[in-house]
Write a structure and sequence with these properties.
This protein is an alpha/beta fold. The protein is built from eleven helices and twelve strands. The chain binds pyridoxal-5'-phosphate.
């Protein structure tokens, strides 16, 4: 007899993994290198004491949505919260994708966009970016007219390239897309421009954000979307009831009181990013501009995998993108603390002179 087979379309798909190895310097998953402030943890512990754990949480997460709406100068009806922005993306695919519908992605980009689309039975049309990772806007418009996707995913700053989509690009995609345009701004606070400025009740645009990076709360699993109330209502129809637990709602709300500290962390990481990019420019590596907390680079005349292994041998873990389509020999390093960045640069210096 044996156990039953899964859905046939799952058999070819690998889950999304970012291998974690025990190392001293972990610069592979774009997390904040700093924990949230101690005063936040104290306030959270205090708040947790007052939660009525025998009751279901606020199903609408209204307090949290109100606070996020204040943060962005929108209305709570325009905010949808979920367990990480990945659950936001999944909810978008459940509500607007599905069998017989299409998603367009511009590769290379965040692997979860196409992965989640596949899992929800949505067909994925992948468009390659130009060699410099920008979009050919004429080409984009014709692809969108031809593919008629119900969802278009943009990512700004784009993971793994670090580059932002400028207002012209987002505007062009919005004009040409027949469905919903989603701009994933997981790294939004690191960049100078945000598509949040284009959100409106009649605009088919949704911007996703997360607590995982700039808010230093990857362990909490909280993300959200800002968009038209009609989109928010659609997403509420596909999520499970009470999907956001009471502790998470409280934590998300409290974290916003520590916005100055968040902005200070972001400022420090931006200065460190500039320093690391400048240091890389003096080495035999190609470096792409970044407006995020990570940097994409490619060793010249060396295999990316060799350099990745050399860094790992020195207890520095970066992301190996060398086999990803369009990213031959590329590696991605997360900006860490000044000490971690020094360790990375020293190890890299070593590896590049080693035979
Ligand atoms: C890290 C990252 C996220 C975060 O997802 P969460 O589920 O919120 O942790 C989302 N989008 C991109 C592009 C990312 O790099």
């Amino acid at each position: 007899m044996g156990l039953p087979p899964t859905r046939p379309d799952l058999q070819l798909r690998e889950g999304y993994h970012s291998p974690q190895v025990a190392v001293e310097v972990r610069l592979n998953t774009n997390e904040s290198p700093f924990p949230p402030p101690p005063a936040f943890l104290d306030a959270l512990v205090e708040e947790v004491r007052s939660i009525e754990f025998h009751r279901y949480p606020d199903r609408a997460a209204w307090g949290l949505r109100k606070a996020l709406a204040d943060l962005h100068g929108v209305r709570p009806e325009q905010v949808f919260c979920a367990n990480g922005s990945n659950e936001v993306l999944q909810s978008i695919c459940l509500a607007y994708g599905g069998a017989g519908r299409r998603v367009v992605t511009f590769e290379p980009t965040y692997a979860l966009h196409s992965h989640i689309a596949h899992l929800t039975g949505t067909e994925v049309v992948s468009v390659q970016r130009r060699a410099d990772f920008t979009l050919d806007l004429d080409g984009v418009s014709s692809v969108l007219v031809e593919a008629q996707p119900s969802i278009v995913f943009l990512c700004s700053p784009n993971n793994p390239t670090g580059m932002i989509e400028d207002p012209t690009t987002v505007g062009t995609v919005l004009d040409a897309a027949p469905g919903l345009v989603v701009v994933d701004e997981a790294y939004g606070q690191f960049a100078d421009w945000s598509a949040l400025s284009l959100v409106g009740d009649e605009v088919p645009l949704a911007v996703t954000r997360t607590y995982s990076k700039t808010w230093a709360m990857a362990g909490m699993r909280l993300g959200y979307l800002v968009g038209p109330p009609q989109v928010v209502e659609a997403l509420e129809r596909v999520v499970l009831p009470y999907h956001l637990d009471a502790v998470k709602q409280a934590a998300g709300l409290l974290a916003l009181r520590f916005r100055d500290e968040m902005e200070e962390r972001v400022g420090l990481l931006v200065r460190e990013r500039r320093r690391v990019i400048a240091a890389l420019a003096d080495r035999p590596v190609q470096v792409w501009p970044s407006e995020a907390n990570f940097i994409l680079w490619r060793p010249e005349g060396r295999s990316g995998l060799d350099v990745w292994q050399g860094l790992l041998d020195r207890s520095v873990l970066v992301r190996d993108c060398s086999t990803w389509p369009g990213l031959r020999d590329c590696l991605r390093v997360t900006v860490g603390t000044p000490e971690e960045n020094d360790r990375f640069l020293a190890a890299l210096g070593d590896v590049l002179v080693a035979p």
